[in-house]
Amino acid sequence: MARSPSPVGPTAATRARQRRVYSTILWWIFVGVFVYNAVVVGQFVFWIPAVGFALGAFATTRLALSARAPERFTPAPGAIAASRKGRPVTAPGQWVPPGGARPGTAQSGVLRAAAGRLSFETADGDTGFDVAITQIGLPTVPSFLRPQLDVELASGVHTIRLFPVWDLGATFVGPTVAQEWCLQLEAAGASGPA
Fold first, then answer.
1. 16-49 burial, b for 16+ CB within 10 Å, e for fewer?
2. 174 and 147 in contact (C-beta within 8 Å)?
3. What pTM, to 2 d.p., does this model score?
4. DSSP readout, 125-149?
5. Across residues 137-145, what is the average pLDDT?
6. Which of 56, 71, 95, 188 sits in a 20 to 30 Å window from 111, CA-based?
7. Which H or E run includes 31?
8. For residue 177, how many other CB atoms are within 10 A of its CB?
9. Does the pLDDT value for residue 126 go beyond 60?
10. Whether the Cβ atoms of residue 16 and residue 176 lie closer than 8 Å to each other
């Protein structure tokens, strides 16, 4: 039995943008705490995490303000079911194929849903998979600890990360984006998590 892809209230895209703003502010506050401690306490050791987290927060903020921000690719309500070959629903991501591959070996590319099919095309132009949505299993629900989309095919479980590994906002924003993909794929005929 398919779950409703879009609850009453703000759309997943709106919730993702809100969470991005909150997480960005929180990361900069976190950096500020280390800077404050380095200045007030006078301990040099506080500058090391302050600089490290500041670099991460800067890169994350820069990504959030760009046109390639992952939350900008959150499907609109009913978009996957309404997608056509000329109007696909796409999102940049990293694909980890089944068979014991480590997340560090992920291949960048584009996740695409169109005309009842789901595919992943790598940046090299290779097709990671291309399958009817009705032949897909969704073994897990994206969560804070696993902000990714797991797709079970005959060849095994394929993992698609919609956020770069270094993105500090991924654990806050990622579940919202990946859950919307999961819910809409389920509504389009994929078998959902048990």
1. bbebbeebbeebbebbeebbebbeeeeeeebeeb
2. yes
3. 0.79
4. S-EEEEEEGGG-B--S---SS--SE
5. 88
6. 56
7. helix 12-40
8. 30
9. yes
10. yes
